[in-house]
């Protein structure tokens, strides 16, 4: 897979600091990062990598003044296993408060972090009423998750021009139009209104062309979906309301957080005067697996953080279990 971010500035930009959350995550038994190289033009003044609270790997760049353009390209190889959701052994919604209360830690996977509203996903009475109606007959948390996702998919129309990155989810819900970010944030708010802990997940989606048509290079995109905690026995389940499906083999995970701000692919500051043009592209090609047993192997040897520059530098996978 290859991911590219490109910026052009009308006038030379001042110095700035940028954070990129673009590296595929390592999820033992589900997703393995085999190889990653990052190229940056022009050469940054400083580079670093760190993990945020939820474990997402973040590339940090300090860019010099005088930029007329900036390009960052990720070239990576990922193994992703599309697990069948299996039997539904999730808790009834009425049991979730007790099971959440018995979760005694505040680690990154704790459901306690994902119940409260945030600035981007505040309480939304209309969304809460919609969620109650959509899940009225749900016997379990997972069934409620799927019922709500299907109902939201029917309610909303995907429209890349209807909203922008700062459109409130309540407004997108009222318009019944939006993009994957809107679908995901509306569903996160709806799930939380039911007492079901929910996280916003950022990643990539491998798209398949219609039958008989060639695959389009660059047709894939950054994507967003939700992750819901369905009880002690089941744990977290990913669901994609934009496509009305569980997030399985075509979804490549980057990271998760309470809302978009905590998983935004690009954040930071850059001093500008005049206009800028930006674009990004994602291209994912499927490669045959030589040995299916390799999908279940532990992650390979650990490596250091990325050494970034104008030439491609390897970004080694972290030690097993850290993703």
From TrEMBL:
SMART domains: TGc. InterPro entries: Bac_transglu_N, Papain-like_cys_pep_sf, Transglutaminase-like. Gene3D superfamilies: 3.10.620.30. Residues 314-323 have a biased composition (Pro residues). Pfam families: Bact_transglu_N, Transglut_core. Residues 172-243 form the Transglutaminase-like domain. Residues 275-323 are annotated as: Disordered. PANTHER family: BLR2979 PROTEIN, BLR5614 PROTEIN-RELATED. This is Transglutaminase family protein. It comes from Paracoccus yeei. The lineage of its organism: Bacteria, Pseudomonadati, Pseudomonadota, Alphaproteobacteria, Rhodobacterales.
């Amino acid at each position: 897979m290859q991911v590219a971010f490109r910026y052009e500035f009308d006038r030379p930009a001042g110095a700035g600091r940028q954070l990129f959350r673009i590296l595929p995550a390592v999820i033992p038994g589900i997703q393995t990062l085999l190889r990653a190289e990052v190229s940056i033009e022009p050469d940054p003044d400083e580079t670093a990598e760190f993990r945020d609270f939820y474990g997402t790997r973040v590339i940090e760049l300090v860019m010099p003044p005088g930029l007329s353009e900036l390009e960052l390209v990720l070239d990576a190889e990922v193994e992703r296993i599309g697990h069948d959701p299996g039997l539904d052994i999730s808790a009834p919604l009425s049991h979730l408060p007790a099971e959440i209360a018995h979760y005694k830690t505040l680690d990154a996977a704790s459901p306690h972090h994902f119940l409260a509203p945030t600035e981007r996903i505040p309480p939304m009475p209309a969304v809460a009423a919609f969620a109650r109606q959509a899940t009225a007959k749900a016997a379990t948390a997972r069934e409620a998750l799927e019922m709500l996702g299907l109902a939201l998919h029917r309610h909303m129309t995907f429209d890349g021009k209807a909203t922008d990155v700062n459109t409130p989810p309540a407004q997108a819900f009222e318009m019944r139009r939006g993009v994957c970010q809107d679908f995901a944030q509306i569903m996160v708010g709806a799930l939380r209104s039911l007492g079901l802990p929910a996280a916003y997940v950022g990643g990539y989606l491998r798209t398949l062309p219609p039958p008989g048509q060639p695959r389009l290079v660059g047709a894939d995109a950054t994507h967003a979906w939700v992750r819901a905690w369905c009880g002690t026995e089941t744990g977290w389940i990913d669901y994609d309301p934009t496509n009305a499906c569980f997030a399985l083999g075509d979804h490549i995970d980057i990271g998760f957080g309470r809302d978009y701000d905590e998983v935004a692919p690009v954040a930071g500051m850059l001093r500008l005067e005049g206009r800028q043009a930006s674009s990004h592209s994602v291209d994912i090609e499927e490669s045959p697996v030589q040995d299916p047993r390799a999908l279940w192997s532990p992650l390979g040897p650990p490596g250091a953080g990325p050494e970034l520059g104008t030439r491609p530098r390897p970004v080694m996978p972290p030690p097993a279990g850290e993703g």
